[in-house]
Amino acid sequence: MTEFLELTVDKFTFRFATDRYYHPEGVWALPEGEGRVRIGLSDFAQQSGGDVAFAEVKPVGTAVAFGDEVASIETMKTDIVVPAPVGGTVVEVNPALEMSPEAINEDPYGEGWLAVIAATDWEADRARLLDAHAYLERVREVAEEEMRKR
């Protein structure tokens, strides 16, 4: 069972799965073995974006470099460009998102995953990602800055 860290800022509570790595822009990466990495939006990213209305992930066979757009998500508040947290080739896209894009909001670390990428160099890309503790601290800074702006 996945363990979570939690951060509460004002009236919002954010969860961070400890078994994965995070791109600073809010995308998680979970290595699955054989060079495959499952990706999705973090709880903070999905809460910040609002209710997901539409999700479009690059099709299977698409090559992406670290930081390239791998998906775009439309919410009631904004459009989100999702950067690839790992370079490689998209080998699987979550089929549930076509009919139920709200799965991203309802279960961002489970049924709301976006894609699986066959990583070109997971070790090099992993070195550029944050662990759950470091990502929590980044989110704390961002969320507290947002609160000061209000």
Describe the fold and architecture.
With 150 residues, this protein is an alpha+beta fold. The protein has a single domain (4-149), classed as OB fold (Dihydrolipoamide Acetyltransferase, E2P) (Beta Barrel). It contains five helices and eleven strands. The strands form three sheets. Strands 3-4-5-11-10-7 form a six-stranded antiparallel β-sheet. The protein has a three-stranded antiparallel β-sheet with strand order 6-8-9. The N and C termini lie far apart (37 Å).
Radius of gyration: 15 Å
Please tell me the overall pLDDT: 96
**Tally of individual helices:** 5
Given as residue ranges, the uncertain stretches (5+ residues, pLDDT < 50) are none
Percentage beta strand? 35-45%
CATH topology name: OB fold (Dihydrolipoamide Acetyltransferase, E2P)
Number of strands: 11
CATH class: Mainly Beta
Shape label: globular
Order of helices and strands: EEEEEHEEEEEHHEHH
CATH architectural category: Beta Barrel
User: Which secondary-structure class do the elements indicate?
Assistant: alpha+beta
Strand order of the largest sheet: 3-4-5-11-10-7
Helix content class = 25-40%
Kindly report the name of the CATH homologous superfamily. Answer: RNA polymerase II/Efflux pump adaptor protein, barrel-sandwich hybrid domain
